Structure formats: structure tokens, C-alpha cells
Fold this protein.
Amino acid sequence: MIISDVERPFAPRAKTTSAIETDLSRGKIVSFATDTGYIEPGVNYTDESNRYPYPPGKFPPNPLGLYDMSGNISEWVADWYAPDYYARSPRENRQGPQRGEKKVYRGGSVFNSPGGSSTVIRGKAEPALPYASGGFRCAINTGEPLPVD
């Protein structure tokens, strides 16, 4: 399944793999979904000379083992866009609007500045339009945590 607008910002935010510290840091806003939480061009983020999406896994994963959460491609999420959705939606189990004209995407791409690749970036676009720096991330629902190597 394609992850939702609510799920997408969570994945980049854990700053550590220590069980106790991870529990404390989940949900905390971390500006960049890199291995350190910071942008280091050429080390964990593309340098200014690259303006094309790169193959997955070029840079180290974030502490949850997820690759390319900041700065490679923007990612479509399952939700339709509504400007007032979060103001009128339930606090728990948000499902997104039932319909709309535009879909939500999260994160920035190689075409954005590093600041445009923050974990909190949220945009909208018509899903039928070609989007050279867009993609999506699939997720699996499981009752048990997956191992983190």
C-alpha cells in the first residue's frame, strides 16, 4: 500500500535506533531525514552539481533503516489534498479526504534547495501531470516491528 499523508512524516523522524531513545524521539520533528538529522552535501545528501534523481541507497539510511527520505524525490502519498482537512479532521485515525482534484506529496527532490527537502514539506499536484522528480513509497502493515540492521 502507498503510505498516507499522516504516516509519511513519521518515518524520517526517529533520530536513533536505541529502543528507549527511539521511543522518546518518535514524532519529534527532525528537519532532515538523513542518518544524522542534518544535511551534509556529498556525504548524506546530493551535492549542488547533481540535479537528477539518483539510484536508491546512494547515501546512508536514517536510523530506522529507510533510505532517501530527504532530497532525492518527492513522494506521493495516498491522500487527496484539501487545504482545511487537518483543521476539520478527527484527531485519531485520519484517513484523508475521500476525493479531490489534487494529491498530496511529501518531501523535496534534487530540484529543491536543502531547505525544500525538509521532512515537513507538504505539497499538492494533479496526479495525471508528469512529475520528473516524484515517486512513492510502499509500506507493509504488520503486528510486529521489522528488524532494523
